[in-house]
C-alpha cells in the first residue's frame, strides 16, 4: 500500500456543509389579485347582484376589506321613486348616485356589473365610464359590438367579461383583437353552481363536464395564447358555489388568480337588501335551491318559495311592463316581470318575488359584517396553507434526522480510517502490514458513499425548503 497516496487522499476529504438550513417563514397571506394596473389586497370579487342587492353599501364594505366591491346596474333605477315613469333615466341617475356614494365610503376598488342583454346597456356603460369606476364586469351575453374601447381606455376602466366556457373566451378575445386591437383585462368564469342567471343549457347544469373545476383549466389554456401575443397577464377568476377559504385555495391551486363570490355576501350586515331577503338565505335548505326558467330566456338558480310555486303552476302575476328593459324578455310566457319580482324580494316582500341564490347558499347559517366574513374566509385559507406547511415540515424533520445519522456515521468512519491508517503506517515500519491491508480502502469507499448520500439528502432538504416557500406564497 502506498501510504503517501493514502495520506493524500485522506487529507483531501472535504466535509460537506453540516449546518442545516433554517426557516424564517414570511407572514403567510392570501395572494393579491392584479387586473391590469389595479391590485386588490385579497383575491376576492364580490359578484354584482341585481336588483339592488349589491349597491354602494355592500360594494364599499368589500372594497374596504381589500376585495373588489361591485354595484349591479340592472334595474338599479328601481330604488328611485320614478322608475315606472322614467325607467331609463332613473337607472342612469341611480347608478351614478350609487357609484359616487360607494366612492365616498371607500378608497378601495369599486366595479359595476352590467348585463349585456339590457336594453340600456350602453347607458349603464357610459355612466360607469363617466364616473371612472375601476372596472366593469360584463355578463349575460358577449361583449362584442358597441364597446367604446377608446373611451374605456382613456378613462382607465378595466373590462372583464363574465363567461361560462373557453369557447366564449376565444370568441370575445378574437373579436376584440381583430376589431379593437386589444383584449379584455381579465375573465370571470361562472360555473353552473352560481346564483342568478346561468350561462348553461338546463341539461348541462348537472353535467360533470361543465363543472367549474373543469372550465378553469380550459379557460387558462385559452387566455395563455393571448397573454403571449399581447405580453400581458390576463387574470382568470372562478365563480359559482365558492364558499370558504378552502375553496379559494383549491381554485388558486388550479391556476385561477381569484374568485368571485355572490351568495355569501348576501348574508352580510352591509348587503343592500332587506333583512327578510338575507334571512331567506339563512333559512333555506338544500332542497329549496332550485333551477328556474327565467323570463330573460336563461335558466337561473333561486330559492323556491310560494311565488315561484305559483308561477310554475301557471298562475299569472299581474304586472305592467315599465319600459321593456330586456329585448329578449318573455314575461308573458313566464307569467311575471322578473325585475318587479326581484325588486319586491329586495324590499323583503318575498310573497311577491323571489331570491336568486347559489347552489351552496343553504350552507349559510348567519348574517355577519363583511369584515367578519372576510376574516373567516382568510383564516380558513391560511389554515389550509399552514396544514400543508406542517406536512412538508414533518418531511423536512425526517430528512434532517437522516442527515444527522449520516453525519455521525461519516465522522465515525473517518475516525476509524484515521486509526487504521495510523496502524498501517506503524505496521509498515515493522514490515507486518498484511493484516490491515485493504481495510482503509474499504473505509474510504464507505466515506465516499456516505458523502454522496449526505449530499443527496442535503439537496432533498433544499427541495423541501423550496416547497415550503412555494406553499407559503400560495403557489402550490
Ligand atoms: C341574488 C343574486 C343576484 C345576482 N345578480 C346578478 C346580476 O345582476 N348580474 C350578474 O352578472 N350576476 C348576478 N349574480 C351572480 C353573482 O354575481 C355571482 O357570480 C354568483 O352568485 C356566484 O355564485 P355564488 O352565489 O355561489 O357565490 C347574482 C347572484 C345572486 C345570488
Topology, pairings included?
Elements: H1 3-12, E1 33-35, E2 38-40, E3 44-46, H2 56-64, E4 68-72, H3 87-105, E5 109-115, H4 121-130, E6 135-139, H5 149-154, E7 158-163, H6 166-180, E8 187-190, E9 196-197, H7 212-230, E10 236-239, H8 245-253, E11 258-261, H9 263-266, H10 275-283, E12 289-293, E13 299-303, H11 306-312, H12 331-334, H13 338-346, H14 370-429, H15 439-472
Parallel strand pairs: 3-11, 4-5, 5-6, 6-7, 7-8, 8-10, 10-11
Antiparallel strand pairs: 1-2, 9-13, 12-13
Helix pairs in contact: 1-14, 2-3, 3-4, 6-7, 8-14, 14-15
The structure holds flavin mononucleotide.
How does this structure look, described?
With 476 residues, the protein is an alpha/beta fold. The protein has 15 helices and 13 strands. It has helices at 3-12, 56-64, 87-105, 121-130, 149-154, 166-180, 212-230, 245-253, 263-266, 275-283, 306-312, 331-334, 338-346, 370-429, 439-472; strands spanning 33-35, 38-40, 44-46, 68-72, 109-115, 135-139, 158-163, 187-190, 196-197, 236-239, 258-261, 289-293, 299-303. Mean pLDDT is 89; it is low at 8-13.
Radius of gyration: 32 Å
User: Which word captures the global form?
Assistant: elongated
How much of the residues is beta strand, in percent? 5-15%
Largest sheet: 8 strands, parallel
Q: Could you tell me how far the N terminus lies from the C terminus, measured between alpha carbons in angstroms?
A: 55 Å
What is the arithmetic mean of pLDDT? Answer: 89
Query: What is the level 1 CATH name of the largest domain?
Result: Alpha Beta
Ligands present: flavin mononucleotide
- The counted number of beta strands is 13
The CATH architecture classification of the largest domain is Alpha-Beta Barrel
Give helix % range: 40-55%
Task: Give the domain tally.
Answer: 2
Biggest sheet strand order reads 3-11-10-8-7-6-5-4
Order of helices and strands: HEEEHEHEHEHEHEEHEHEHHEEHHHHH
| Uncertain runs | 8-13
User: Strand pairing plus helix content: what structural class?
Assistant: alpha/beta
CATH fold descriptor of the largest domain: TIM Barrel
CATH superfamily of the largest domain: Aldolase class I
Number of helices: 15
Amino acid at each position: 500500500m502506498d501510504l503517501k497516496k493514502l495520506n493524500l487522499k485522506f487529507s483531501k476529504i472535504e466535509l460537506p456543509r453540516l449546518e442545516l438550513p433554517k426557516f424564517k417563514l414570511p407572514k403567510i397571506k392570501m395572494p393579491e389579485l392584479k387586473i391590469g394596473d389595479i391590485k386588490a389586497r385579497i383575491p376576492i370579487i364580490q359578484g354584482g347582484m341585481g336588483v339592488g342587492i349589491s349597491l354602494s353599501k355592500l360594494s364599499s364594505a368589500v372594497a374596504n376589506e381589500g376585495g373588489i366591491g361591485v354595484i349591479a346596474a340592472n334595474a338599479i333605477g328601481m330604488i328611485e321613486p320614478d322608475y315606472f315613469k322614467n325607467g331609463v333615466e332613473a337607472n342612469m341617475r341611480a347608478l351614478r348616485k350609487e357609484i359616487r356614494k360607494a366612492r365616498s365610503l371607500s378608497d378601495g376598488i369599486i366595479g359595476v356589473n352590467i348585463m349585456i342583454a339590457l336594453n340600456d346597456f350602453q347607458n349603464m356603460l357610459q355612466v360607469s365610464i363617466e364616473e371612472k369606476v375601476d372596472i366593469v364586469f360584463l355578463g349575460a351575453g358577449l361583449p362584442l359590438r358597441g364597446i367604446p374601447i377608446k373611451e374605456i381606455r382613456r378613462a382607465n376602466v378595466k373590462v372583464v367579461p363574465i363567461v361560462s366556457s373557453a369557447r366564449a373566451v376565444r370568441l370575445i378575445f378574437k373579436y376584440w383583437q381583430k376589431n379593437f386591437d386589444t383584449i379584455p383585462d381579465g375573465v370571470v368564469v361562472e360555473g353552473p353552481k352560481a346564483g342568478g342567471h346561468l350561462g348553461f343549457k338546463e341539461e348541462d347544469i348537472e353535467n360533470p363536464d361543465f363543472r367549474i373545476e373543469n372550465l378553469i383549466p380550459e379557460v387558462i389554456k385559452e387566455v395563455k395564447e393571448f397573454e403571449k401575443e399581447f405580453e400581458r397577464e390576463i387574470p382568470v377568476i372562478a365563480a359559482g358555489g365558492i364558499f370558504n377559504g378552502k375553496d379559494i385555495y383549491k381554485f388558486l391551486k388550479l391556476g385561477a388568480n381569484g374568485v368571485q363570490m355572490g351568495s355569501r355576501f348576501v348574508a352580510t350586515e352591509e348587503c343592500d337588501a332587506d333583512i327578510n331577503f338575507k334571512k331567506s338565505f339563512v333559512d333555506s335548505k338544500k332542497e329549496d335551491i332550485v333551477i328556474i326558467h327565467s323570463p330573460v330566456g336563461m335558466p337561473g338558480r333561486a330559492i323556491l318559495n310560494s311565488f315561484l310555486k305559483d308561477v310554475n303552476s301557471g298562475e299569472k302575476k299581474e304586472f305592467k311592463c315599465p319600459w321593456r328593459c330586456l329585448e329578449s324578455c318573455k314575461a308573458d310566457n313566464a307569467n311575471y316581470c322578473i325585475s318587479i319580482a326581484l325588486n319586491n324580494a329586495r324590499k323583503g316582500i318575498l310573497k311577491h318575488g323571489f331570491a336568486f341564490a347559489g347552489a351552496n347558499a343553504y350552507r349559510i347559517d348567519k348574517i355577519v359584517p363583511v369584515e367578519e366574513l372576510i376574516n373567516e374566509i382568510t383564516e380558513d385559507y391560511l389554515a389550509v396553507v399552514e396544514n400543508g406547511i406542517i406536512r412538508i415540515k414533518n418531511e423536512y424533520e425526517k430528512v434532517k434526522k437522516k442527515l444527522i445519522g449520516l453525519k455521525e456515521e461519516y465522522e465515525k468512519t473517518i475516525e476509524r480510517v484515521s486509526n487504521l491508517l495510523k496502524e498501517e503506517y506503524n505496521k509498515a515500519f515493522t514490515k507486518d502490514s498484511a493484516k490491515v491491508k485493504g481495510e482503509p480502502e474499504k473505509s474510504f469507499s464507505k466515506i465516499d458513499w456516505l458523502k454522496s448520500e449526505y449530499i443527496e439528502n442535503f439537496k432533498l432538504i433544499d427541495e423541501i425548503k423550496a416547497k415550503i416557500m412555494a406553499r407559503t406564497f400560495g403557489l402550490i
